[in-house]
Amino acid sequence: MSTGVRVAAVGDVHVDRDVVGRYRPALDELGDKADVLLLAGDLTRHGTADEAHCVAQEFGNLAVPVVAVLGNHDYHSDEVHLVTKILEDAGITVLEQSSTVLDVRGTRLGIAGAKGFGGGFAGKCASEFGEPETKAFIHHTRDIANGLTAALQAVECDIRVALMHYSPVPDTLVGEPLEIYPFLGSYLLAQAVDSAPTALAVHGHAHAGTERGTTPGGVKVRNVAHPVIKQAYSVYELTP
Amino acid sequence: MNEYTEGQVQQLLAEDPRIGEQGIRVVRVDDGVVLVGEVESPDRCAQIESVLHEAFPGLSVRCDLGVTRVGAPQEVEQI
User: Full-prediction pTM beyond 0.80?
Assistant: First the structure.
Protein backbone atom coordinates (compact mmCIF):
# COMPACT_ATOMS: atom_id res chain seq x y z
CA MET A 1 0.00 0.00 0.00
CA SER A 2 1.48 3.33 -1.06
CA THR A 3 2.00 6.05 1.54
CA GLY A 4 2.68 8.85 -0.93
CA VAL A 5 0.39 11.65 -1.92
CA ARG A 6 -1.10 11.18 -5.39
CA VAL A 7 -1.58 14.38 -7.33
CA ALA A 8 -3.70 14.30 -10.47
CA ALA A 9 -3.35 17.20 -12.87
CA VAL A 10 -4.58 18.47 -16.23
CA GLY A 11 -4.66 21.87 -17.89
CA ASP A 12 -6.16 23.46 -20.98
CA VAL A 13 -9.43 21.58 -20.87
CA HIS A 14 -11.20 24.54 -22.56
CA VAL A 15 -14.64 23.49 -21.41
CA ASP A 16 -17.81 24.76 -23.07
CA ARG A 17 -21.21 23.13 -23.45
CA ASP A 18 -19.87 20.76 -26.12
CA VAL A 19 -17.39 19.27 -23.64
CA VAL A 20 -19.67 18.74 -20.63
CA GLY A 21 -19.75 15.04 -19.79
CA ARG A 22 -16.64 14.04 -21.78
CA TYR A 23 -14.35 13.95 -18.73
CA ARG A 24 -16.83 12.46 -16.30
CA PRO A 25 -16.14 8.74 -16.87
CA ALA A 26 -12.44 9.29 -16.07
CA LEU A 27 -13.25 11.71 -13.24
CA ASP A 28 -15.53 9.10 -11.69
CA GLU A 29 -12.39 6.95 -11.18
CA LEU A 30 -10.47 9.80 -9.58
CA GLY A 31 -11.19 8.78 -6.01
CA ASP A 32 -9.37 5.49 -6.58
CA LYS A 33 -6.44 7.04 -8.41
CA ALA A 34 -5.56 10.32 -6.68
CA ASP A 35 -5.88 12.46 -3.55
CA VAL A 36 -6.31 15.82 -5.26
CA LEU A 37 -6.92 17.16 -8.77
CA LEU A 38 -5.01 20.21 -10.00
CA LEU A 39 -6.34 22.24 -12.92
CA ALA A 40 -3.55 24.18 -14.60
CA GLY A 41 -5.53 26.99 -16.22
CA ASP A 42 -7.43 27.55 -19.47
CA LEU A 43 -10.43 25.88 -17.96
CA THR A 44 -12.74 27.71 -20.38
CA ARG A 45 -12.60 28.77 -24.04
CA HIS A 46 -13.27 32.49 -23.61
CA GLY A 47 -13.60 33.08 -19.88
CA THR A 48 -17.36 33.61 -19.85
CA ALA A 49 -19.74 32.91 -16.99
CA ASP A 50 -21.59 30.35 -19.11
CA GLU A 51 -18.38 28.45 -19.74
CA ALA A 52 -17.42 28.66 -16.07
CA HIS A 53 -20.74 27.04 -15.19
CA CYS A 54 -19.83 24.22 -17.59
CA VAL A 55 -16.45 23.82 -15.82
CA ALA A 56 -18.23 23.77 -12.48
CA GLN A 57 -20.58 21.08 -13.75
CA GLU A 58 -17.75 18.96 -15.15
CA PHE A 59 -15.17 19.36 -12.38
CA GLY A 60 -17.37 20.08 -9.36
CA ASN A 61 -18.54 17.48 -6.83
CA LEU A 62 -15.65 15.10 -7.37
CA ALA A 63 -14.40 12.51 -4.88
CA VAL A 64 -11.21 14.54 -4.24
CA PRO A 65 -10.51 18.25 -3.66
CA VAL A 66 -10.00 20.30 -6.82
CA VAL A 67 -7.49 23.16 -6.87
CA ALA A 68 -7.12 25.43 -9.91
CA VAL A 69 -5.37 28.43 -11.36
CA LEU A 70 -6.81 30.37 -14.26
CA GLY A 71 -5.16 30.73 -17.66
CA ASN A 72 -5.10 33.36 -20.39
CA HIS A 73 -8.31 32.03 -21.99
CA ASP A 74 -10.09 32.46 -18.65
CA TYR A 75 -9.17 36.17 -18.72
CA HIS A 76 -10.41 36.82 -22.26
CA SER A 77 -13.87 38.16 -21.40
CA ASP A 78 -12.72 40.30 -18.46
CA GLU A 79 -14.97 38.32 -16.11
CA VAL A 80 -12.27 36.84 -13.90
CA HIS A 81 -14.02 37.62 -10.63
CA LEU A 82 -17.27 36.08 -11.83
CA VAL A 83 -15.52 33.02 -13.27
CA THR A 84 -13.63 32.56 -9.99
CA LYS A 85 -16.82 32.89 -7.94
CA ILE A 86 -18.67 30.34 -10.07
CA LEU A 87 -15.83 27.84 -9.67
CA GLU A 88 -15.50 28.46 -5.94
CA ASP A 89 -19.27 28.09 -5.47
CA ALA A 90 -18.81 24.62 -6.99
CA GLY A 91 -16.17 23.79 -4.38
CA ILE A 92 -13.14 24.38 -6.60
CA THR A 93 -10.32 26.29 -4.87
CA VAL A 94 -8.93 28.95 -7.22
CA LEU A 95 -5.40 30.15 -6.43
CA GLU A 96 -3.70 33.35 -7.58
CA GLN A 97 -0.46 34.12 -5.78
CA SER A 98 -1.97 32.24 -2.88
CA SER A 99 -1.88 28.78 -1.38
CA THR A 100 -3.95 26.09 0.23
CA VAL A 101 -3.06 23.13 2.43
CA LEU A 102 -4.77 19.74 2.24
CA ASP A 103 -4.48 17.02 4.86
CA VAL A 104 -3.82 13.76 3.00
CA ARG A 105 -3.75 10.88 5.51
CA GLY A 106 -1.79 13.03 7.95
CA THR A 107 0.55 14.56 5.36
CA ARG A 108 0.13 18.28 4.76
CA LEU A 109 0.11 18.91 0.99
CA GLY A 110 0.72 22.59 0.27
CA ILE A 111 -0.23 23.95 -3.13
CA ALA A 112 0.80 27.47 -4.14
CA GLY A 113 -0.56 28.73 -7.41
CA ALA A 114 -0.48 31.60 -9.85
CA LYS A 115 -1.40 32.11 -13.48
CA GLY A 116 2.11 33.18 -14.39
CA PHE A 117 2.85 35.06 -17.61
CA GLY A 118 5.37 35.34 -20.42
CA GLY A 119 8.61 37.14 -21.11
CA GLY A 120 10.96 34.35 -22.04
CA PHE A 121 13.85 32.51 -20.52
CA ALA A 122 17.18 33.40 -18.96
CA GLY A 123 19.46 35.29 -21.28
CA LYS A 124 16.84 35.54 -24.03
CA CYS A 125 14.01 37.40 -22.35
CA ALA A 126 12.26 40.74 -22.47
CA SER A 127 13.00 43.42 -19.88
CA GLU A 128 11.14 46.29 -18.24
CA PHE A 129 12.56 48.75 -20.73
CA GLY A 130 11.25 50.99 -23.48
CA GLU A 131 7.60 51.49 -24.32
CA PRO A 132 5.08 51.46 -21.48
CA GLU A 133 3.44 48.40 -23.05
CA THR A 134 6.69 46.43 -22.89
CA LYS A 135 7.37 47.54 -19.35
CA ALA A 136 3.82 46.61 -18.31
CA PHE A 137 4.18 43.16 -19.89
CA ILE A 138 7.28 42.24 -17.92
CA HIS A 139 6.14 44.05 -14.80
CA HIS A 140 3.06 41.81 -14.79
CA THR A 141 5.24 38.69 -14.97
CA ARG A 142 7.56 39.96 -12.24
CA ASP A 143 4.63 40.83 -9.96
CA ILE A 144 3.17 37.36 -10.36
CA ALA A 145 6.53 35.65 -9.86
CA ASN A 146 7.06 37.66 -6.68
CA GLY A 147 3.58 36.73 -5.48
CA LEU A 148 4.20 33.06 -6.23
CA THR A 149 7.53 33.22 -4.40
CA ALA A 150 5.82 34.64 -1.31
CA ALA A 151 3.04 32.05 -1.47
CA LEU A 152 5.49 29.14 -1.82
CA GLN A 153 7.69 30.37 0.99
CA ALA A 154 4.79 31.05 3.37
CA VAL A 155 2.88 27.81 3.02
CA GLU A 156 3.50 25.47 5.96
CA CYS A 157 3.38 21.90 4.76
CA ASP A 158 5.19 18.58 4.35
CA ILE A 159 5.04 18.49 0.53
CA ARG A 160 5.00 21.64 -1.59
CA VAL A 161 3.59 21.86 -5.14
CA ALA A 162 3.64 24.87 -7.46
CA LEU A 163 0.69 25.20 -9.83
CA MET A 164 0.86 27.58 -12.81
CA HIS A 165 -0.61 28.05 -16.25
CA TYR A 166 2.48 29.47 -17.96
CA SER A 167 5.71 27.49 -18.04
CA PRO A 168 8.65 28.14 -15.72
CA VAL A 169 11.16 26.37 -17.99
CA PRO A 170 11.86 25.95 -21.71
CA ASP A 171 12.31 22.16 -21.33
CA THR A 172 8.56 21.54 -21.41
CA LEU A 173 8.08 23.76 -24.45
CA VAL A 174 10.08 21.55 -26.80
CA GLY A 175 7.84 21.00 -29.82
CA GLU A 176 6.53 24.57 -29.81
CA PRO A 177 7.98 27.07 -32.30
CA LEU A 178 10.99 28.84 -30.75
CA GLU A 179 9.56 32.17 -31.90
CA ILE A 180 6.67 31.97 -29.42
CA TYR A 181 8.60 30.86 -26.32
CA PRO A 182 8.41 34.38 -24.80
CA PHE A 183 4.61 34.06 -24.87
CA LEU A 184 4.64 30.65 -23.21
CA GLY A 185 6.48 31.31 -19.98
CA SER A 186 9.19 32.99 -18.00
CA TYR A 187 12.29 31.97 -16.09
CA LEU A 188 11.07 34.25 -13.27
CA LEU A 189 8.52 31.56 -12.48
CA ALA A 190 11.29 28.96 -12.16
CA GLN A 191 13.13 31.29 -9.83
CA ALA A 192 9.96 31.42 -7.70
CA VAL A 193 9.66 27.62 -7.71
CA ASP A 194 13.32 27.26 -6.70
CA SER A 195 12.96 29.77 -3.85
CA ALA A 196 11.29 27.14 -1.66
CA PRO A 197 11.70 23.36 -1.24
CA THR A 198 9.19 22.53 -3.94
CA ALA A 199 8.54 18.88 -4.80
CA LEU A 200 6.80 19.40 -8.13
CA ALA A 201 5.85 22.24 -10.46
CA VAL A 202 2.89 21.78 -12.78
CA HIS A 203 1.81 23.97 -15.71
CA GLY A 204 -0.18 23.95 -18.93
CA HIS A 205 -0.50 26.43 -21.82
CA ALA A 206 1.97 24.80 -24.23
CA HIS A 207 -0.25 22.44 -26.23
CA ALA A 208 2.57 21.29 -28.50
CA GLY A 209 5.15 21.03 -25.74
CA THR A 210 6.68 18.16 -23.81
CA GLU A 211 5.58 16.66 -20.50
CA ARG A 212 8.84 16.59 -18.55
CA GLY A 213 11.37 19.21 -17.50
CA THR A 214 13.41 20.44 -14.54
CA THR A 215 14.09 23.87 -13.06
CA PRO A 216 17.70 25.06 -12.67
CA GLY A 217 17.31 24.20 -8.99
CA GLY A 218 16.34 20.60 -9.75
CA VAL A 219 12.58 20.75 -9.22
CA LYS A 220 10.69 18.47 -11.56
CA VAL A 221 8.32 20.28 -13.90
CA ARG A 222 5.39 18.66 -15.67
CA ASN A 223 3.46 20.19 -18.56
CA VAL A 224 -0.03 18.78 -18.11
CA ALA A 225 -1.70 20.58 -21.02
CA HIS A 226 -4.38 18.17 -22.16
CA PRO A 227 -3.05 17.81 -25.73
CA VAL A 228 0.35 16.93 -24.23
CA ILE A 229 -0.74 14.25 -21.75
CA LYS A 230 -3.50 12.93 -24.06
CA GLN A 231 -5.60 11.57 -21.21
CA ALA A 232 -8.10 13.06 -18.77
CA TYR A 233 -5.38 13.71 -16.19
CA SER A 234 -1.92 12.48 -15.23
CA VAL A 235 -1.09 11.24 -11.73
CA TYR A 236 2.14 11.96 -9.86
CA GLU A 237 3.02 10.37 -6.53
CA LEU A 238 4.98 12.49 -4.06
CA THR A 239 6.52 11.40 -0.78
CA PRO A 240 7.57 13.74 2.06
CA MET B 1 -1.77 31.34 -50.73
CA ASN B 2 0.92 33.58 -49.30
CA GLU B 3 2.40 34.35 -45.90
CA TYR B 4 -0.09 37.13 -45.23
CA THR B 5 -3.02 34.77 -45.66
CA GLU B 6 -1.27 32.26 -43.44
CA GLY B 7 -0.96 34.97 -40.78
CA GLN B 8 -4.62 35.95 -41.16
CA VAL B 9 -5.73 32.34 -40.77
CA GLN B 10 -3.74 31.95 -37.58
CA GLN B 11 -5.11 35.22 -36.14
CA LEU B 12 -8.65 34.18 -37.02
CA LEU B 13 -8.29 30.86 -35.22
CA ALA B 14 -7.50 32.72 -32.00
CA GLU B 15 -9.64 35.82 -32.38
CA ASP B 16 -12.90 34.64 -33.93
CA PRO B 17 -15.31 34.27 -31.00
CA ARG B 18 -16.66 31.06 -32.50
CA ILE B 19 -13.19 29.45 -32.35
CA GLY B 20 -10.67 30.80 -29.82
CA GLU B 21 -7.96 28.23 -30.57
CA GLN B 22 -4.29 29.08 -30.09
CA GLY B 23 -2.89 25.58 -30.26
CA ILE B 24 -3.56 24.75 -33.91
CA ARG B 25 -0.66 24.73 -36.36
CA VAL B 26 -1.30 26.30 -39.75
CA VAL B 27 0.68 24.52 -42.47
CA ARG B 28 0.90 26.35 -45.79
CA VAL B 29 0.61 24.16 -48.88
CA ASP B 30 0.47 25.08 -52.57
CA ASP B 31 -3.28 25.46 -52.88
CA GLY B 32 -4.22 26.42 -49.33
CA VAL B 33 -3.67 25.41 -45.72
CA VAL B 34 -3.73 22.30 -43.61
CA LEU B 35 -4.70 22.74 -39.98
CA VAL B 36 -2.97 20.35 -37.60
CA GLY B 37 -3.68 19.87 -33.91
CA GLU B 38 -6.18 18.74 -31.34
CA VAL B 39 -9.39 20.22 -30.01
CA GLU B 40 -11.77 19.30 -27.21
CA SER B 41 -14.83 18.18 -29.17
CA PRO B 42 -15.85 16.98 -32.66
CA ASP B 43 -18.12 20.03 -32.99
CA ARG B 44 -15.08 22.30 -32.87
CA CYS B 45 -13.46 20.62 -35.88
CA ALA B 46 -16.59 21.27 -37.94
CA GLN B 47 -16.92 24.83 -36.63
CA ILE B 48 -13.32 25.70 -37.49
CA GLU B 49 -13.72 24.40 -41.03
CA SER B 50 -16.98 26.31 -41.48
CA VAL B 51 -15.60 29.63 -40.18
CA LEU B 52 -12.50 29.39 -42.36
CA HIS B 53 -14.55 28.64 -45.49
CA GLU B 54 -16.71 31.67 -44.67
CA ALA B 55 -13.72 33.97 -44.08
CA PHE B 56 -11.54 32.72 -46.94
CA PRO B 57 -13.85 31.58 -49.76
CA GLY B 58 -11.85 29.84 -52.43
CA LEU B 59 -9.02 28.89 -50.12
CA SER B 60 -8.48 25.18 -49.81
CA VAL B 61 -8.68 24.29 -46.11
CA ARG B 62 -7.94 20.76 -45.00
CA CYS B 63 -8.38 19.91 -41.34
CA ASP B 64 -6.16 17.29 -39.77
CA LEU B 65 -7.60 17.90 -36.33
CA GLY B 66 -8.12 15.25 -33.69
CA VAL B 67 -10.20 15.28 -30.54
CA THR B 68 -7.97 14.86 -27.50
CA ARG B 69 -8.58 11.58 -25.72
CA VAL B 70 -10.08 11.70 -22.22
CA GLY B 71 -9.36 8.23 -20.88
CA ALA B 72 -8.34 7.68 -17.27
CA PRO B 73 -4.59 7.16 -16.78
CA GLN B 74 -3.28 3.66 -16.22
CA GLU B 75 0.05 4.70 -14.70
CA VAL B 76 1.33 6.78 -11.81
CA GLU B 77 4.68 8.57 -12.08
CA GLN B 78 6.78 8.53 -8.93
CA ILE B 79 8.34 11.94 -8.38
Answer: yes
